[in-house]
Structure formats: C-alpha cells, structure tokens
Amino acid sequence: MAHYHDHLGRPLVAVTGIGVVTSLGVGKTDNWTALTSGRSGIHPITRFPVDHLNTRIAGTVDFLASSDKGASALTFELAEKAGREAIAESGFDTDEFGGPLFLASPPVELDWRERFSLYNASKEGSASDRLLAVARNLQTLDIFETSQFGSIAARLADEFGTRGLPITLSTACASGATAIQLGVEAIRRGECDRALSIGADGSATAEALIRFSLLSALSTQNDTPEKASKPFSKDRDGFVLAEGSAALVLESLEAALARGATILGIMRGCGEKADDFHRTRSKPDGSPAIGAVKAALADAGLGKDGIGYVNAHGTSTPENDKMEHLSLSTVFGEHIRSMPVSSNKSMIGHTLSAAGAIEAAFSLMTMRQGVIPPTINYDNPDPAIELDVVPHRKREADVSTVLSNSFGFGGQNTCLVMAREPV
Hints:
This protein is of the alpha/beta class. Helix content is 33%, strand content 18%.
C-alpha cells in the first residue's frame, strides 16, 4: 500500500505535469532533446540595438508571437504556454484547473516604447506636465492593465480556471523555486490537493542588459555566443541574460493516485535562507547558501549521502560559482567529489525569475529519463572548484534524488529536493 505522508507526517507532494519553454524551443520534448545534446540557445541580440554595448548576446526567446511586444506580454505568453503544457499532461482541464496559482515573474516596468507612448499621449506643456496629464487618465489606457504587478497572474487565473486569488512573487533568481515551494507548502498544510506553480521571465530588455552590465555581472564574450556561459570554468566572466518559463502541476500523492495520474516525481524538501550581506554578492563564508542546502535536506529527511545529483545554480559568474562550490563542499564533504553537479545555464543562460522552475523541471526529467544533462564549455577547469560537472556530454545515470539550487541577488536562497519515487 502506498505511503501518502512524509517523515514529518505531512502529505507527500507529487508532480503530475511539466511544461517548459526556453531559447531551445517550446515544450519539454524539444527542450530535453536540445539540452541533452549539449546545444546552446545563446545567440546575438536582434530585438533591440546593441551598438556600443559591452554585452551583445542573450538567450532571448524570439520565436513567440509576443517576442517583440514588451516584457509583460512575453512573460504572459511564456507562462501560458508552459502552464498549458503542464496542465494538459496532468490530465486536468486546461480551463478549469481548480487549484491555486503561484507565479514567479519579474518586477513589471514600462519599456522605452511604452514610456514614449505615454509621453506622446499628451501634447501640451512641459514634459512633467504632460506626464501628469497622462497619469490622471491611466485607467483609460491599456497600459494601466499591463503594467500592474499582478496582472499577468490574474490573466493566467482566468485562462486556466485556478482557485482563489493568484499569488505573484519576485525573489530575484530564486523566484521560480519559491513559487514551487509555496505550492508544496499549501498542499502540505491541507489547503488544497493541487496547485499550479509557474516561473516565467521575458524581461531581456535593453534596460535589463544595461543594468546587469553596470553591475559587471554579464559575460562580454560576444564573438562566440554559444560558448559565453561556462559555469565552473576558470575563464568564466559573467552570466548570460535569458528568457524562459516552466510550470509544474503539484498534487498530493494520495489524490493523484486516486485519480490514476502518472507520477513524474516527488517534491521531498524545500529550504530557504536569507543573506543580508550585500545586494549582489554572497556572504564570504557561504553560510546562507549552506543553510539553505541543509534546510532542504532536513525538510526532505535526508542526510548528505541521500542526494544523487545536484542541478547547480551555476551562473558562470566568478563570485557565485565559487560560493556554490563552497556551500556544496561544506555540506557534502568528500562525497561531493563523486557526485555529479551540472549547470543547465551553460546552454540556456540565466532565465532570472524562471530559472528555479526551469531547473526543477529539468531535474525531474533527469530522474525520469535516467540522463544527466552536461555542463558545456568546460574547456578550462577552475582548479579551485573540484566538482564533477558532467563536462561536454550527457551521462546516463540512475538518479533517484536531486538537489536543485537557486541563489538569487538580494540574498534570496531557495533549494529544492526532488525524488523519482515516493519514500
């Protein structure tokens, strides 16, 4: 007889649907084929002018209808496509899901086209007077709806028929993992028997590129875009800005089995820890990241020998990769030398708000398919980071548990532990 509760007596949470969109393609089949082939989705930017910019490459999603319509429109379409794929796989109705929605998305802001449109909506007076005149009539403009932080989740809730007020969150690069954690915790508390967690980010705009460049966070290796993201390599020089989305249908294991659903994996543990050291840098001793990993393992009821593979945050920045290695080696000790630790970002770039959800989806697929995606571009290993990064080529492996790390700017750290089967 199936065990429906974990080591703390909480309902076990199963994954019954997965949806993915990245620069590698739409849908988890195309993404998985490209990812395990070691193909990169990083390419020169064509969406906006990049003259005189230090970084001219990104993992933009340029093949969707809203790719050139602004960050909010693209984020919605990315979330909608991933959500629709996940719900369809789960077997629920795609317009009557019936559970709560947790959406991780970027902070909404107006891009330059929208700002000029607002400015031109009034014709008289100084610039400030014209903007004030427009502001008084914002509710008559479509831009009022699309510029609200909760508007994307509200539209998704209508589209999918989710229950209750949708929650929108933004915890930097940990956002996608946090959205999953909120869904898991809602089911554990008995508030629902199913939840839809989505991470989506279509904000690879000129403004975002410039801001991250000013932080010296982006790679400037423009000549060979597909080789620019090189996690854990000695010559890594920054992350590559990217877009994408992933959705998971989460369900209590008991409810899923009762309706005959296919179980794609089990969410075993969630851990989080804040870092108050710096707005971008991690605390030098790595204690917040270490604490997040330990919290996830404790929540899952696992020791340091209980993880078979780590889906690394692996951004390709000098600071983050060093800190992640410190955290993993501290928690797992010598065992980390023989544990595979690979980074999807070497191929898809850093999808920011969506990253934690996308990497959780790929982690579940790793266990289900018995294949670990590689870390590509590992041509110059960093001798200070001793990890088995699964270099260059995929690896067939029997993986039953995965730790997926998400360490975000602003000190937001969230780790997820997933298992192939129930305890």
